[in-house]
Amino acid sequence: MVTTTSATSSSSATASILDSSSKTAKANVVSKLGGGSGIDTQSLASSLVDAERAPRQAAIDKNIKKNEAIVSGMAAMKYALSNLKTAFDGLKDVTDYKSIVVSNTNTTAFSASANSTASTGAHTVEVTALAAAQRTAGTVAFASTTTSVNGGMSMALTLGGTAFSSGTTISIAAGDDTPQGIVDAINDADVGLSAYLVNTGDATTPYKVVVAGSSGVDNAFTISASDTSSSGGDIDSGFDFSSTNLQEAADAAVTVDGISVTSDSNTITDAVPGLTLVLKATNSGSAATVDLSNDTSVAKAKVTALVTAYNDANSLMDEVTNPSSTLETYGGTLVGNSTIRTLRDQLRTMVTSISDTAPSSTVSYFHDIGVELDKSGQLTINTVKLDLAFDTDFDNTVTMLSGDQQDLSVYDTTTDAGIAGEASRTLYTMLKSSGTVTTESANATSRISDYEDDLAKLDDRMTRLLAHYTKQFAAMDSIVGQTKSTQTGLTSSFAGLMAMYTNK
């Protein structure tokens, strides 16, 4: 009777504990059931689950680490290939090779500068006249900038150039009819005139109004004031603008290579394509010489930068595919990766293939200008050949590299683009969102996500397995407990019987 009650109580306690999800209840399972068999069933269940989890988790973790390495390695490759594309981009346009150096035999008369569209050559320049803007002063001087001129006035403009509309009138209200008010009204009218006050230093009436136009004969103007006050009289004893100008409007005149050029500005940009002349003084009768020559050192430096970028990319490929690499972060991340082998082959083709715009038998390949591939796969520069190509065969060298193209779109695959343009297209294809490098990285990232899902599923299965083992071992422990209780009862009964028979 005692044994039955004990077994029933133990079974009820076990069910209550296993149904609870709290940590405290789980801990009580061991304390309540462990007494049956003397075995730590919770530890046993955990050990069995851990043993089953370990190989599966190790395999998943290994795959995650492998794909994280691919993402890291491809990121490094993308950076290196982007730098290489930038280097090729610096050589794919015909203007990339032009760095015009300007020499001028008369910097007093004018300054000269050129952009990349200018052509080499010498030009004669003779400045015979400078452009000038008309300046006109008021006929009356004032004691103060706030002196009232009249109770109201207007100024009529007759503008001789197409820059203005004839007959423009500027009105000045009563209260604003001061020297400063006149200046502000002209400037605010925004008709191409600028006004300002000049302090002449006179002891009593130092301030005069001066109006200036834009340079050039077509920008000459006349301006006259009239009284609009109720009196209708003269404005401050005949204030108006002088008919004699302080400076007359004039055009610039220059002779370039024997051709006369006139301009309303002292900046001449259309006499020679790509050449800008800023006139400062006349040099009539003594023409100056402007010489435009190409500085090939700029193009050579770009070729050197390309070689450096190529070698950096090639060296990185060596490191990411080397299982013994000591390079931090990226070393050995892409061992055995077939994509790298494909990329390496494509890079080698870029610098060893004949140009699609090869202009001559002497300038058709990179090695014809001194850019050569050595046994280790690195590019080297033969500076003697490079200098010879740019200094003595400049045009053919540029054609071979750029195809004489300018701003050629990477989407245009029909036009010959030279070695640099073709390489730029290929690298763009590698790096674009659907390209080899980006796709490889995206696929690895997707696999990482899948493996992380597998880890979550594994955790869920192991949690359920632990609960299953715990329940099984609890039932086992309960049975063992009952068996022990029965054993104890039987042993006690036999002992009693033996005592009765032996009278002990």
How does this model look, in words?
- This protein has 504 residues and is α+β, with helices and mostly antiparallel strands.
- Among the domains are: 176 residues, no CATH class; 74 residues, no CATH class; 95 residues, Immunoglobulin-like (Sandwich), CATH 2.60.40.4390.
- A 5-stranded antiparallel sheet has the order 1-14-3-10-11, with no helix packed on it.
- Strand 12 and strand 13 form a beta hairpin.
- Helix 1 packs antiparallel against helix 2, helix 3 runs antiparallel to helix 10 and helix 7 crosses helix 8.
- The protein is elongated.
- The two termini are 25 Å apart.
- The N terminus is likely disordered.
SSE order, one letter for each helix or strand: HHHEEEEEEHEEEEEEEEHHEEHHHH
Q: What's the β-strand tally?
A: 16
Computed structural class: alpha+beta
Please summarize the sheet with the most strands.
5 strands, antiparallel
Point out poorly predicted stretches. 1-35, 232-237
Concise account of the structure shown:
The protein is of the alpha+beta class and 504 residues long.
